[in-house]
Amino acid sequence: TSITSAKIEVNGVHLHYQQTGEGSHAVLLLPGMLGSGQTDFGPQLKSMNKQLFTVVAWDPRGYGKSIPPSRNFPPDFFERDAKDAVDLMQALKFKKFSLLGWSDGGITALIAAARYPNLIHKLVVWGANASVTQEDVRIYNGIRDVSKWSEKVKKPLEELYGHKYFAETCEAWVDGISCFAENSDGNICQQFLPDIKCPTFIIHGEKDPLVPQAHAEYIHKHIKGSR
């Protein structure tokens, strides 16, 4: 039941991950914007069934303890994270695994499931979106200044990163994600959704302040057989 913490070199960067359990079903937990395995999935690492599952939580490059490098947001950052995530699991010798992705980690999981169908067993996403609308950009700009965040959300991230890195990376994320609004239909990963063949479960929080529910409905509509 112990949780191991380690780094492994993947695609030229040292990615940090935590691992627990000895079940035959491997699952990767993918955190959201600025998140790490520990900040976003502490309860899951502690409480998921260790007999059924082998649970891995990762810190994407530039997040959590996967620094250096510093986090940046080129136009393909979701595809980059998807490749890193899958290559990490392969480096850890998992032949097939499921993805549980939250927020940005949900977008990353959608792309990974579409691009690497032979490796992905099942998919669960929540708080994810496949496009960015002008309304979304307005919402994102509302969180640009981290000094306005609630203490509860801000505190663990300030402890993880220090104020400067946290504040600068949040601004860079807002700029990076807002760029998708300039694409046709604000596209992030719409074209990938029909390629997802694994069983998919989509969850959405009724009070999600960042992602309007229409995004979850769009993803459900475009992934065949999803629930």
From TrEMBL:
Sequence ranges assigned to domain AB hydrolase-1 in this UniProt record: 26-139
Record keywords: Hydrolase
Residues of the signal peptide: none
GO MF, one example: serine hydrolase activity
Superkingdom assignment: Eukaryota
Gene3D superfamilies in UniProt: alpha/beta hydrolase (3.40.50.1820)
PANTHER family on file: VALACYCLOVIR HYDROLASE
Name listed for the protein in its UniProt record: BPHL hydrolase
Organism of this sequence: Oxylabes madagascariensis (white-throated Oxylabes)
Highest classification ranks of the organism: Eukaryota, Metazoa, Chordata, Craniata, Vertebrata
